[in-house]
Amino acid sequence: MEYTYTVIYQLTEEGGTSAYVPALGVNTQGGSLEEARSMAKDLIQDQVETFVKTGKVVPQETERYEGEKVSVKVTVTVT
């Protein structure tokens, strides 16, 4: 299944880039925009997989956000 979330990027005072995913309420940062993008995608992937593995409802975006859309695919294994 594919999940898509908006990521909002902002430059930090230290010269890096922060990445915030409002629908999941999580953030991360990287030394550059590209690093922050990669970190955000990994964070989204981990968060969604955790929700799925623990049987919790995966949050969906209910509001419109200005930012970059990031999609991840999660494979659910039934045992």
Helix content: 25-40%
Tell me the fraction of residues in β-strands, as a range.
25-35%
Number of helices: 1
CATH fold group: Double Stranded RNA Binding Domain
**How large, in whole angstroms, is the Cα Rg?**
13 Å
SSE arrangement, N to C: EEEHE
Spans of at least 5 consecutive residues with low confidence: none
Largest sheet: 4 strands, antiparallel
Q: In total, how many domains does the architecture comprise? A: 1
What is the level-2 CATH architecture name? 2-Layer Sandwich
Structural class: alpha+beta
Shape: globular
Q: CATH first level: which class?
A: Alpha Beta
| Mean residue pLDDT | 92
**Widest beta sheet: strand line-up:** 3-2-1-4
Rounded to the nearest angstrom, the distance between the terminal CA atoms is 17 Å
- β-strand number: 4
Describe the structure in your own words.
InterPro entries: TTHA1013/TTHA0281-like. By secondary structure, the protein is an alpha+beta fold. It is globular. It contains one helix and four strands. It has a four-stranded antiparallel sheet with strand order 3-2-1-4, with helices on one face. The two termini are 17 Å apart.
Question: Which features characterize this protein?
Answer:
Double Stranded RNA Binding Domain; alpha+beta; about 80 residues; globular; four-stranded antiparallel sheet
What's the helix and strand layout?
Blueprint: E1 2-11, E2 17-21, E3 26-30, H1 33-53, E4 68-73
